[in-house]
Amino acid sequence: MKTVKIINILVILFVSLPGSSGVEDNGTIQPGSGRLDPPPSWGAHTVYNHNGANLDMAWHHVIPWDTLRNFWNKILLLNHDPDAYFWKDKSQKKRSPNLNEVKIYGKILIEYLKYLKFANPQSIVDRMKSNNFKGEAKDEFLQKIIWQKWNIVEGPKGDLRSDDPGSSQIDKFKTGLDEKEQGCHTALQALYDKMKDFDTWDFQRFNYETQAGNLIAAFSITNKCDESILIKFKVAMWTFKQGKWKVLR
Predict the structure, then answer these.
(1) What domain range is 127 assigned to?
(2) Cβ distance 236 to 176 under 8 Å?
């Protein structure tokens, strides 16, 4: 009897866990989920000899992974279940978003998936909304969110840096970029700012249509950043002082 109970508990736990990628069937990305490896087409890290040894390299996110995940989860929830988000008006009465707001959230979600280069964004949203986002599609989806080439810079591993921002802030790069790369990183900064602003939108006090338009416009960084951009390690972008690497700004 005890054995049967233990097996039942294990089955329940297994069923309730998200997929191996950390993506739920409704498209939500779980905190602490795996980040998958970058596409194999990127190849191996640059080999750079520093003080007689090869420098350990990493792929650094410009817009941090936490920001990407949190932004996605919020626009997804606002599209799936807008009544789950409540905002208080001046009389402190709870309200649900109106129909026009709901349409705006849906448009943001679709435009974001287009920015991520998904061919059929509406089909993806429909599958997520019906809890039918399964299998290999999860890994493909997560990899596209995490590993956009233009959002990556190769450099010394985080523990070898004195200025690694981790997952809390944008990783700014400026020195050593060519004109095209600089234009891309300026656009990434603008997108990061809009994503962070979205966390604090006051749905009672501002014109959400205008703000949503500004956010969607920031997705047009694809006009500045194309899929050929992957910034490999450049010594001119870094400085080495007191045993640590630091980005030149």
Answers:
(1) 21-247
(2) yes
